[in-house]
Design brief:
6-stranded mixed β-sheet
């Protein structure tokens, strides 16, 4: 769906329907100040008699067909003091899906109405436009490539951001374009995580990463089994030994003009394209969902899709590096066994006591490799790492761990503002290192059940050099959902949070 801009007020707007927002108890003149002045039929539309503006309520108001604006979709937001950004996004999502059901080709977004909502919510108009546009785009996402019979309703072809002024302000345009780029990155991440493992495997993932890099003129390389062996990444290789699929570590470097020589921002994503648990086999129930155990790597690739779309007009002042560590964890005769000992790239020995604690093994070597090859300004890894994090925080939230308070604060604030909720958890090294103690190696790869998410984070910390600014995002509870802006399945969680970290805190960029 294309994003367009229209200015000049309602008399110059054109769309099959215009979305406008109504708080509980408002009439047309209060809710649609600009629209009702030009679409005079709106205030006397019979449907207003029964429309209350309650949260979740929607009504299509009809006027004369000959008018440029002959349909207005009223979107109820409920009581103003109870509205939050999640509820707003979901309201937009439900409305866009309704427009699809009506087979509308062009939909308008009333900025005058949005300005009222922004004022009541205490946010800037451009910030609300960004959230409205991304919600509209994400709500239309469908993973239907395998369905022999597709939905008969087609998506709207365009969404117009409509301004009452003589022109659409640059801030509003930039916000909409940012949302468009973010949505593209999220939808790429969703596609990759929704694809079955017989389609998205380590090699095909690496090929998709290469396509993104080539499309946007970024640097790309991939490390296969021989390369990983040469780099002495035994922990990573141990995870992949039981699979017929070769492990692939894809690396993308994006260096906008003028950033040469600056310390990069480095993202590392867990890319287990399928996780059976290995010899420590998972239960059969729900194992099909393990095709999405590469959601961390998918989010990293989504960031580069978004950066590529934004281009030089909105480029970070540092290079950005993405490391996507892909493999499969399968139980054949070559698979790693409980009790095996491997030596990671940084020289630490690891006793594998649970082959289903494989993601941290892959990330351990990927983090060590990242620090050997890049002097990172900040290093962030993201992974569907532990079920323990879901137990601690519930669904739709990620655990955030960091050795840098400023980095942790930036990630927390950005994620919560952008719909990717996280909560900072502690790195209690003293307690966790006791749980990770091995009688015959430096570490075991899995501690006791209690505090499992913390133990996993502390394990990873052993592969982060002293003084390196680092954060770990455990998104195991947030990679799958179903709501008005997310068709059941992968969420693309992490793309917006990581993208925000590409810019320094002091830079002026939409956050």
């Amino acid at each position: 769906m294309d994003i367009r801009f229209q200015a000049g007020g309602a008399s110059k707007w054109k769309a099959d329907a215009v979305m406008t927002f109504v708080f509980e108890g408002e009439d047309a003149e209060q809710a649609c100040t600009v629209l009702s002045q030009s679409a005079l039929w709106l205030s006397i539309a019979p449907a207003w008699r029964d429309f209350r503006g309650k949260s979740g309520e929607m009504t299509m108001f009809y006027g004369p067909k000959a008018m440029e604006i002959s349909r207005v979709l009223g979107i109820g937001l409920g009581k103003a003091e109870q509205l939050d950004m999640t509820a707003f996004r979901h309201a937009v999502g439900r409305a866009m899906r309704q427009c699809r059901e009506y087979d509308l080709a062009g939909v308008g977004l009333d900025c005058a109405s949005l300005a009222r909502v922004a004022e009541k919510m205490g946010v800037a108009l451009d910030a609300l436009v960004r959230e409205a546009v991304i919600a509209a785009l994400l709500s239309l996402y469908r993973y239907d490539r395998w369905l022999s019979r597709k939905d008969e309703h087609e998506d709207p072809k365009w969404l117009a951001v409509m301004s009452e002024g003589e022109y659409v302000e640059n801030e509003v345009r930039s916000a909409a374009r940012m949302a468009e780029a973010e949505a593209s990155g999220i939808m790429l991440a969703r596609d990759l995580a929704n694809d079955p493992a017989n389609v998205t495997n380590p090699s095909s993932f690496a090929e998709k990463a290469r396509e993104v890099a080539v499309k946007y003129g970024m640097t790309f390389r991939v490390l296969g089994s021989a390369d990983l062996e040469a780099e002495k990444m035994e922990a990573y290789l141990a995870v992949a030994r039981g699979s017929a699929e070769e492990p692939k570590m894809a690396v993308i470097e994006y260096a906008p003009k003028g950033t040469e020589g600056r310390e990069p921002v480095v993202f590392v994503g867990k890319g287990l394209c399928f996780d059976s648990g290995g010899i420590s086999l998972k239960p059969a129930k729900g194992m099909e969902e393990m095709k999405g155990d590469m959601s961390g790597a998918a989010a990293v690739l989504g960031v580069f899709e978004a950066l590529g779309q934004l281009g030089g007009a909105c480029a970070p002042s540092r290079p950005v590096v993405g490391i996507m560590a892909c493999a499969e964890n399968m139980p054949d005769g070559h698979a790693a066994r409980p009790g095996d000992i491997v030596v990671a790239k940084n020289g630490k020995s690891i006793e594998i006591v649970n082959t289903d604690a494989e993601g941290r093994l892959v990330l351990a070597d990927a983090l060590a490799w990242a620090q050997e090859n890049y002097k990172a300004a900040r290093l962030v890894d993201i992974a569907t790492l532990t079920g323990a994090c879901a137990v601690a925080l519930g669904l739709e939230a990620a655990g955030l761990f960091s050795n840098d308070d400023a980095l942790a604060s930036a990630l927390y604030e950005a994620g919560n503002a952008l719909g990717e909720r996280s909560w900072r958890l502690p790195l209690w090294a003293g307690t966790s290192l006791k749980a990770l103690k091995s009688p015959c190696a430096d570490l075991v790869n899995a501690g006791q059940r209690e505090g499992g998410a913390i133990h996993a984070a502390v394990f990873l910390q052993q592969f982060v050099r002293e003084g390196q600014s680092w954060a770990h995002i455990d998104m195991a509870a947030a990679d799958n959902a179903e709501n008005p802006i997310n068709a059941k399945g992968a969420t693309g969680f992490g793309v917006r949070t990581l993208l925000s970290a590409a810019w320094d805190k002091s830079e002026e960029v939409l956050q």
